[in-house]
Amino acid sequence: MTITADSSVLLEVRDLEKSFVRSRDLLGRPREQVRAVREVDLTLRAGETLGIVGESGSGKSTLGRCILGLDTPEKGEVVFQGENLMTLSRRALRRRRRDLQMIFQDPYASLDPTKTVGHAIAEPMRIFERTPRHEAEARVATLLTKVGLRTEFAHRYPGEMSGGQRQRVAIARALALDPKVIVADEAVSALDVSTQSEVINLLVHLSAEFDLTCLFISHNLSVVRHVSDRIAVMYLGRIVEIGSAEEVYERPTHPYTRALLSAIPVPDPAIQRARPKTILEGDVPDPAHPPAGCAFSSRCPLAQPVCRTEQPALLPRANGTLSACHFAL
Ligand SMILES: Nc1ncnc2c1ncn2[C@@H]1O[C@H](COP(=O)(O)OP(=O)(O)O)[C@@H](O)[C@H]1O
Ligand code: SF4
Ligand SMILES: [Mg+2]
């Protein structure tokens, strides 16, 4: 067991590594490997929301899944309330798991179409707490109200609801056991823009009311900004910049963060025209064969020879953020 020194730290990720075998040779040995998460260190302070951004394939979901124990990392620690989840027995881990809940992009995939909404929300109560039926029903009604749905939704089926309503059900279900940590993985990405902001507002509201600590994962930087206290930017499995949401958005020090931000349209056309642009050229490299040195070097407008040979370390910058770039601003 590891004791975390700073008591405000609820969850800590240390040196996390997770690879997937993409292809094997004739003898079944790994031929190509994708290092989905590489040397990731993170802390989540009690009550904060940490946004994780980056293009598709950067390792955001794998990081979230490793934290929740849905993927098993090869290396590293996930320390929750001073306990390393990696070394817990199956039984102890199961008990811990109720404190850590996930909300996925597509609740339709996680909600059984043949079971009512009430059944879905009450399921964790039955499994983990053997809550008596009448008590579970009362709690389901309360949870539905909290997520902005009428209590009669308990009798409906997922197929009869809109995407936004289904996502509210998924949130109610995640809250059923009064968790401490929520990992929301692209939780609003499948919704239309106005429903997105409703669900985001709901999450912000509930995370204050339930005193939740959140990891909010999205490829969409405009979505993450409004919910996050801090932001981590990932590229090919690594965190390349991390800091307060304000600093990362207003004064990004990493060229990749700047490129991602300059791709967000600004409503005012005059500001949009005047804004410095960093065009993100090309696609994300094949994660099984990342560039040597800095993984961003194949697309970075500032790349120098040293970038192609030396991996930049994630170092503190003057504005209090950390970033991994030889030429960080
Ligand atoms: N179960 C898996 N099997 C094989 N490769 C995977 C698996 N899950 C993720 N990957 C690979 O790991 C990398 C990171 O994926 P992911 O964590 O889903 O990124 P993101 O959520 O940022 O889009 C990608 O290259 C992806 O193809
Ligand atoms: S280390 Fe070099 S290639 Fe990497 S982001 Fe910085 S300037 Fe660009
Ligand atoms: Mg993902």
Automatic annotation (TrEMBL):
Residues 21-261 form the ABC transporter domain. Keywords: ATP-binding, Nucleotide-binding, Transport. One of its GO terms (molecular function) is ATP binding. SMART domains: AAA. It comes from the Bacteria. This is ATP-binding cassette domain-containing protein. Gene3D superfamilies: P-loop containing nucleotide triphosphate hydrolases. It comes from Rhodococcoides kroppenstedtii.
